[in-house]
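Interim report, section 4.2 (structural modelling).
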Amino acid sequence: MAQTINTRVTRTDARRKVTGAATYAADEIPAGMLHGALACSSIAVGTVTSINTSVAEAEPGVVAVYTHETLPDYKTVKGFYAGGPGSASFWPMEGTEIRYAGQPVAYVVAETAAAARRGADLVEVSYEEGESRIHMTPDDSFVVGAGEDSDGMILDQGDLQAGLDSAAQSVDMTFTTPFQHHNPMEMFAATAEWRGDRLTVWMPSQSVRTLRAGIAGAYGLPETSVRVISSFVGGAFGSKAGITPYTMLTIAAAKGVGAPVRLIVTRPQMYTVATFRPESEQKFRLGADAEGRLTAFEHIETAQTSQFDMVVNAGTHITRAMYACPNIRTEQRLSRSDTNTGGFMRAPNEMQTFWGLESAMDELAWKLEMDPVELRRVNDAREHPTEGVPFSSRSLMESYDAVAQSFGWADRGREVGSMTDGDWLVGYGCATATYPTNILASNARVRMQASGNAYIALAAHDVGTGTYTIMAQVAAARLGVPVEAVDVVMGEASFPVAPISGGSTTAASAGSAVHDGCMKIAQQVATRVSAMSEGPLSGVDPAQVTLDDGTLRGPNGQSQSLAEALSMLPEGEVEVIGEFRHPALTNELVAATFKGGYGTAGPVTPDFAMFAFGAEMAEVHIHRYTHEIRVPRLHGAFAAGTWLNRKTAHSQLLGGMVWGIGSALHEVTETDSARSRFLNANIAEYLIPVNADIREVRVEMLEEQDDYVNPLGVKGIGELGIVGTAAAIGNAVYHATGTRLTSLPIRMSDLVST
Amino acid sequence: MSETPPDLTRPGVSRRGFLQGSSAVAGSLGMAVGAAEAQQAEPSADARTIALTVNGTRRHVTVEPRTTLVEALRDTLGLTGTKIGCNQGQCGACTVLMGGTRVNSCLTLAVMAEGTEIVTVEGLADPTGDLHPMQAAFAENDAFQCGYCTPGQILSAIACIEEGHANDAVEIREYMSGNLCRCGAYPNIVAAIEQVRDSEQG
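Predicted structure of the assembly:
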């Protein structure tokens, strides 16, 4: 058999994706389907005093206009940050209260999408407007669960002040990051179809089982009465994790009109009906001795949250894992303002915090007159600085050395402003990337037939990450069959339990369940054929039979292919449930996942700290007169255990780095502070990188073995590529201009004085 | 067509293309929109049946004047390969070929497409199932992740070469910048287009 792991395998769903045959949620059109549209509030805080629906109702094609007073049988679920499956704790259209701009206030059902949108435009809402504030105020912030229940929200180790006092050089810097929105290309959509008490929901989701459990619970239905289907997801990045109001509103509306209803949320509405990356402030105080060894490390993160939820994306828990230092203090704070609840957006703990940390480290290197790569080297931690356990594997400096070579770091001018290219100022910058290896329980159904065909089913998702392909690869490698002979179905809640497609967990957790299923098939087949009177493995102790690339091998050189052995069974096939239960997964965590929640272990276990690492280097060109900023080259080297598929993994890392360029130079959700609204709520004015923005992006994938993280040795990579990119670019801007930037995104106007 | 096709690849420019393209039907369109407003009480009073030639097949659809081409393709003809990414002409996900020219089908009214040849992603592979070279190149180069923008990217890429705007990577990047890819597959998209361009030239 050709090698199927750690190779470049074309996606098994590529044909469906290039022919238009891949069906995303809004592509399902049940018979008799009607169209939904949302009308959303124009104020941020206040009360609905009246809604006139008569004009909308008179619009041709409009079937129904629902408000908080008329929407029948509307159910809600508990918010994620209150331990539930919802994207937020506050639900619109339960009453007259308005708590954020763009909050749904009416739901129109019509015969066509155009009529529904027109109907929504014609809903007339009167409000009594209250005071509001969209931005957080760090001066008015708090620590979640401060005190004994702080769960590490405040950590104080050693003597920070003594470390600062003894430092040869120190930095004290404050960085900020803006509101950002995921903007997956696929718009949020939900189609609900009731047949009696049975409900089918098509919706792009990162966690179909969470959706089903939440919906079934809300309606008091058995989970078997609710189908949730999400076969293809057009990008998610954290935006399709929880149950959002548009889903529950559509389910209720479909019940109300007695017909299937599909809602495609408009692009502008996508900015307010779901989550986003909260704005944040990152304060760092670092001290180092003359050789660059850190003597003090303080990080205080303050992040925005809504008035009704506490969104804790604990970035300090990641930054304090990076560098060896005896005196470490971290603090995780929140500040409330009048928005919907934010949530997870690609690297939710890491993107903002590594902009700060890696910029501060760069500043420290300049003060120490040290190569910033060498500053990372002298502080490379071999054990977790605050948890006292070793890293299961840590290839940070290997990553730096590899990227330095590919990038040509040695050619970097030693002084600020020392490199030019005609009218362009040239700068090089570097930064560390990391992402924790999170672990969740997973099952997978694996069936193999004597024909050599294999079938896999699990409630995982392919949000573009290549999950369909890598699950097939894992099975193909173990069972000794071609990848094309493995049929994988996912994205349906009734399939065996698999984790949320979030936190970069799927390949490691679900992949390990597929691996386990293949091993179980081998065990079962070995047990049965060894008990037969004839055959190559007859009489062999099945406990001593191993599986090697689809071949069963006995202790004394006996061997038989799995397919041949299967042909000796009357069924001609074996089907099992593979399981992944990492030793770090407690019963409580397993139970949480199996109930539809997120029972995550890691990155720190009693034995190890588990992280993937990488290093990125950026070249920036800044025009001397116009201050136009370009990134002609961005290189990254990453080590994340086993690479299952070098083609799709490369794309994930590449895509992450492109996101990093976006974070550095483009992305910001602008605000209207006077009215507490997001201002550029569309995909033209919310800038994301376009093709012309992206020039040379090179990804190096290093070999790394980690036997602890899971049987496959896989660490998640969906988010790794974005971490550190913005700082690498900012540090290159400093090298080119001597201007130290502290706010994202970096803009031409920031460089006018240079 | 003797005149240069409108440049539909960049935001802003696409609206101009839309207006130019619509000038031929502007008279009847203006009347129809006015009629729609005047006759609100009469459902679908101004709906009309038009013939659309999609992927070489002539099909009749009943549309309102306001019905966009993308909604006629998806909701009426069931050709859901064409995606909606913004419905306001910003992202390019709904790109189809109309008379050989790439257009945002969300900014094109269905009535404007009458009498033209529409090509969607479903019409690219040959009847035996062999992929169009651009489809094959996208698959091979992993020129997508989630695949949602892919139908639009592929049609735009075919037109990009056809227009003569694929001479080098810089030009391809510029002329493919009307098609957003949030997964960030741009370098692979450029590689796929270069591969097809080179094989056509070879």
